[in-house]
């Protein structure tokens, strides 16, 4: 890790016009998506109110991961983020593997988010076909990403504001319902929490943990965006602190309300926010929360297209991807990297529309556990790079407190989550598929590096002979 972030900037040549407030809301918005608005009910069904324990464990892990990433991003803001840090800590093959793995996850998710948003919007506005809406979303957000990082950041900022406002309103309504402050509506009280807190026991909590952990995926994009942010030494630390505590308040607060209002056997958990609002007798609740979920999905699509393009751009700059993907437009946007990233999404979207429920599930089976691998690489990288910096006496703009104990705690928690995953049949196949994909990518990166080295050697010899 370098002493000053300005030393790392000339590597990228990207713009540095993203505002600190945009960086903060990007991290917040990318984590608050359909996993909260639509998927939180699955955790309650698996563990009952004890899902709150699952959220606390997962929340602790993401806090530690974000602190580790924040330390590295402040010292070396780079569009390759955790891929670059893994390369410096564990070698080129490790860095390239993590970068390509994360890129593949994002481009798959881009297709899923476009289709998901289109399907939800069609349920309340059945005018334009789902396939047409999905393609429109892809085109619109490609244009936004090509317009420059300042415009992208502003768009993502307001998307995130809408989601945060919806959650705050939900928490206010939920609190009023539980306290019996709503007219003509009986309060459910806390009976659901106290009567049967853990109906499925420790097994349910463990099963819910593996579901919950993916809801926090996306926060790592803050470390990617740091490369294009003004004054990253200060803005990254502020963004990390703000994102972490707000996510915990919004997630745990929302899930507390859901678990208190809706029993674990309630059919309303299929759309938990709408279920709570229906219980509060709020008119138009289902339509409103559907539109909020559409916004959540489109916001995540926007952020993931940004993150995937910056990652493949960084890989190209480091010689781990075709060089043409490092070309920048006049607005300092890696336009070809954006194009390649969204192209995969277009193809996956079209295939899913032609073969419903076959393409995306197969792809998710491969990349479903990617965020856990990325978080693990971030913790290991920080452990190695921080020890190296301390040994060399290199000052760091932002230092993770409680090092190395807290980093090790994060790795232990991650190990326990993997153990839970391998013990459950539903997630075991997914984990094996993801690790198989990692092995294939690592092998391809290692072979590519050797071929690239062989190509460079004759050129270097020829250049010395000419001299």
Any overview of this molecule?
This protein has 467 residues and is mainly α. Helix content is 74%, strand content 0%. It has helices at residues 20-31, 34-37, 40-47, 51-75, 82-90, 92-124, 130-146, 149-178, 191-195, 201-212, 221-225, 232-261, 272-279, 285-317, 335-354, 359-367, 370-392, 405-423, 425-466. Helix 4 runs parallel beside helix 10 and helix 4 packs across helix 17 (370-392). The chain is globular, with a radius of gyration of 22 Å.
Mean pLDDT: 85
Strand content: under 5%
Number of helices: 19
Q: Using DSSP, what is the number of strands?
A: 0
Structural class: mainly alpha
Biggest pleated-sheet summary: none
Unreliable residue runs: 2-12, 459-467
The percent range for helix content is over 70%
Distance between the termini: 35 Å
User: Secondary-structure element order, as H and E?
Assistant: HHHHHHHHHHHHHHHHHHH
Shape descriptor reads globular
Q: Which value, in Å, is the CA radius of gyration? A: 22 Å
């Amino acid at each position: 890790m370098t002493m000053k972030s300005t030393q790392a900037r000339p590597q990228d040549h990207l713009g540095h016009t993203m505002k600190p407030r945009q960086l903060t809301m990007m991290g917040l918005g990318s984590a608050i998506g359909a996993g909260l608005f639509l998927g939180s009910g699955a955790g309650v069904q698996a563990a009952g109110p004890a899902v709150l324990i699952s959220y606390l464990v997962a929340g602790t892990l993401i806090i530690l991961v974000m602190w580790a990433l924040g330390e590295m991003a402040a010292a070396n803001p780079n569009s390759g983020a955790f891929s670059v840090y893994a390369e410096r800590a564990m070698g080129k093959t490790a860095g390239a593997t993590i970068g390509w793995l994360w890129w593949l996850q994002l481009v798959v998710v881009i297709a899923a988010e476009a289709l998901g948003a289109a399907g939800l919007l069609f349920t309340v506005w059945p005018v334009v076909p789902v396939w047409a809406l999905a393609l429109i979303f892809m085109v619109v957000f490609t244009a936004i990403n090509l317009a420059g990082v300042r415009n992208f950041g502003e768009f993502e900022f307001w998307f995130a504001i809408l989601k945060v406002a919806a959650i705050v309103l939900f928490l206010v309504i939920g609190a009023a319902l539980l306290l019996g402050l709503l007219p003509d509506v009986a309060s459910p009280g806390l009976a659901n929490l106290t009567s049967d807190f853990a109906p499925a026991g420790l097994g349910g909590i463990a099963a819910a943990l593996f579901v919950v952990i993916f809801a926090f995926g996306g926060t790592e994009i803050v470390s990617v965006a740091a490369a294009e942010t003004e004054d990253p030494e200060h803005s990254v630390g502020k963004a990390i602190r703000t994102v972490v505590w707000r996510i915990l308040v919004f997630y745990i607060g929302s899930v507390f309300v859901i678990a208190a209002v809706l029993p674990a056997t309630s059919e309303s958990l299929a759309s938990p926010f709408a279920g709570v609002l229906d219980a509060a007798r709020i008119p138009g609740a289902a339509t409103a929360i559907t539109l909020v979920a559409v916004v959540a999905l489109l916001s995540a699509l926007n952020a993931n297209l940004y993150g995937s393009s910056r990652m493949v751009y960084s890989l190209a700059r480091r010689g781990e991807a075709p060089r043409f993907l490092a070309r920048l437009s006049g607005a300092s946007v890696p336009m070809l990297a954006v194009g390649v990233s969204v192209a995969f999404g277009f193809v996956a979207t079209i295939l899913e529309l032609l073969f419903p429920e076959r393409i995306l599930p197969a792809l998710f089976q491969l990349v479903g556990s990617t965020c856990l691998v990325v978080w693990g690489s971030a913790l290991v990288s920080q452990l190695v790079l921080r020890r190296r910096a301390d040994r060399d006496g290199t000052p760091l703009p932002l230092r993770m407190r409680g090092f190395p104990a807290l980093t090790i705690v994060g790795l232990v928690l991650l190990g326990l989550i993997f153990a839970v995953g391998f013990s459950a049949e539903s997630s075991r196949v997914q984990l094996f598929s993801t690790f198989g994909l990692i092995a294939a990518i690592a092998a391809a990166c290692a072979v590519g590096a050797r071929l690239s080295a062989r190509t460079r050697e004759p050129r270097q010899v020829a250049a010395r002979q000419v001299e």
